[in-house]
């Protein structure tokens, strides 16, 4: 229960100010939990929020969130395919683990998301020789100037 208290306290603090109670948080269903996680991540990294208010399926939302979590170096404690499946289902334990990790990171995630967005490439480009060389050059510059 300590994790839930921590999450609720952080959600009620700046910059989120969500006015969530322990009871309202514990009563949230899977879709509401997934939306809450999406809202928290959008507050931290607005570049990754849902575009144009378009409706997404739970699978699309989970895919978008999993991509962002990969960029900010979140490491789930399970197989990635299982993580995405449980995330799409709005599994309470998975969403709480992610929220706890995200909320503990503070402003570090903003920087990681910004830098990570520009260091990530679409999977189909990762194996082109020029892209691989460019990516290594960018990583070298990042480690030189951002440490």
Automatic annotation (TrEMBL):
<keyword id="KW-0966">Cell projection</keyword>
<feature type="domain" description="IFT81 calponin homology">
    <location>
        <begin position="3"/>
        <end position="119"/>
    </location>
</feature>
<protein>
    <recommendedName>
        <fullName>IFT81 calponin homology domain-containing protein</fullName>
    </recommendedName>
</protein>
<keyword id="KW-0970">Cilium biogenesis/degradation</keyword>
<dbReference type="InterPro" id="IPR029600">
    <property type="entry name" value="IFT81"/>
</dbReference>
<comment type="similarity">
    <text>Belongs to the IFT81 family.</text>
</comment>
<dbReference type="InterPro" id="IPR043016">
    <property type="entry name" value="IFT81_N_sf"/>
</dbReference>
<dbReference type="Pfam" id="PF18383">
    <property type="entry name" value="IFT81_CH"/>
</dbReference>
<keyword id="KW-0175">Coiled coil</keyword>
<keyword id="KW-0969">Cilium</keyword>
<dbReference type="InterPro" id="IPR041146">
    <property type="entry name" value="IFT81_CH"/>
</dbReference>
